[in-house]
Amino acid sequence: MQNASLPKPESADLKSRGVGAYLGLAIGDALGATVEFLTPNEIRHRFAREGGVHKDITGGGWLNLKPGQITDDTAMSLALGKAILADGGKVVALSAARAFDNWMRTSPIDIGNTVRKNLIRFRNTLEAEAPPAEHDAGNGAVMRTLPVALATLGQTQADIAAAFRAQAHVTHNNPLSDAGGLCVIALVQAALQGQSWPNLEAQAQTLSAEHPEFTWQTARRRENPSGYIVDTLVAVLQAFFSTNSFESCLIDVVNRGGDADTTGAIAGAIAGAWYGVAAIPERWQKALNPVIAQDCREQAEKLMAGSMPIQV
Ligand code: MN
Ligand code: MN
User: Fold this and answer.
1) Is 267 exposed, middle or buried (0-12, 13-18, 19+ CB in 10 A)?
2) Is the distance from CB of 35 to CB of 61 less than 8 angstroms?
3) How far is the CA of 151 from the centre of ligand 2 (A)?
4) 113 C-beta neighbours (distance < 10 Å), count
5) pLDDT (mean) for 97-102
6) Ligand 2 mean position to 2 CA, how many Å?
7) What is the mean pLDDT of the chain?
8) pTM over 0.90
9) CB of 275 within 8 A of CB of 10?
10) By the 8 A CB rule, do 159 and 83 touch?
11) Are 271 and 304 in contact (CB under 8 A)?
């Protein structure tokens, strides 16, 4: 079925999509952090001179960031990606736990409560896997999972799921976090492989069929999303599937406020994989911290070099 109104990716090139995904993650984080924990109304007032819309990477926010600075979402992704590369492309739970713990020792500007709690538990027990916890359904394991999507491209569903859980369960051993994370990986990988837009929608519908909490095709726009993975992903999926460019997707999602750096990071990874790096506005690429941008580019290429992309 061809529908002229469906969003089209800018480039069919796998490398452009992988780099787009990683830069998209960092750009979404840097863009969204400015309005993290604001409500949509507060954003409209604060950006009245810009037409009531936040659309530039300017830093600031509650973390008082420099323009182009990123937060824990990107930092934990890069720490995980580095560990995966050091293990020859494998996602090893103990390596992920050590990488996250070492990152926590650098006194990061922000860190989630569940992440902190379970990294302290890891320090004390040296057990990489956290015990199952009904309330550990925050978005912390999903926001950092892009390197897993890149490294496991072309692998079996069972191997992909095991790789996701190895990194995720260090801090979030929870079924909703697992379901959401596997959906994000499926969407990123489908986009990397150049699958159709309806295929991507079907991936997201699989998630909401198995866990109705994630039903995202509602008329009711999810605003002010919390750090609960359900809130986060409903906002991300609504934004991605209701827009037709990288830029409009990211502006839509971060202007919902709430956990905007994390919705921005996850939406940026999916949209970057779909639209490709050439579709990311130049003003955003220029604004991103250049050291972080270089790390993202390098990791994207190296992680995909070790994976086995399926030709579709
Ligand atoms: Mn953050
Ligand atoms: Mn956040």
Assistant:
1) buried
2) yes
3) 24
4) 11
5) 98
6) 37
7) 95
8) yes
9) yes
10) no
11) no
